[in-house]
Design brief:
The protein is mostly helical and 103 residues long. The chain has one domain. The protein contains four helices and no strands. The longest helix has 29 residues.
Length: 103
């Protein structure tokens, strides 16, 4: 989510304080999305404590990707964000194939 927000966002050079809010909102939204997706994928886990632990792992994964997004954007601009997005899609496809779609 943060990657897509930075890809679409154009900062206002005359008002640097206004540049923080959209990036922070996208970052927090990405963390919430990581928790919701992990909680939903863990619906087969009966113990709520274990399910919450898996959701926190989703938050940490989203935080890791968010931490990689800023340097990719600063170093390579839009192509760096596209590359990171493609890497995330490949990781999701591998996880889906290896973990979720098992019989």
């Amino acid at each position: 989510m943060l990657c897509l927000a930075l890809f679409a966002y154009r900062p206002a050079p005359n008002d640097p304080a206004a540049n923080v809010a959209p990036v922070m909102l996208a970052g927090l939204g990405g963390l919430a999305a990581g928790a919701i997706v992990a909680w939903t994928l863990a619906r087969g886990v009966a113990n709520p404590w274990h399910r919450a632990t898996l959701a926190m792992m989703g938050v940490m994964g989203a935080a890791l990707i968010g931490a990689l997004t800023m340097p990719a954007h600063a170093s390579y601009g839009a192509p760096g964000l596209v590359g990171l997005f493609v890497l995330c899609l490949a990781a999701m496809a591998a996880a889906w194939r290896g973990l979720v779609s098992r019989p």
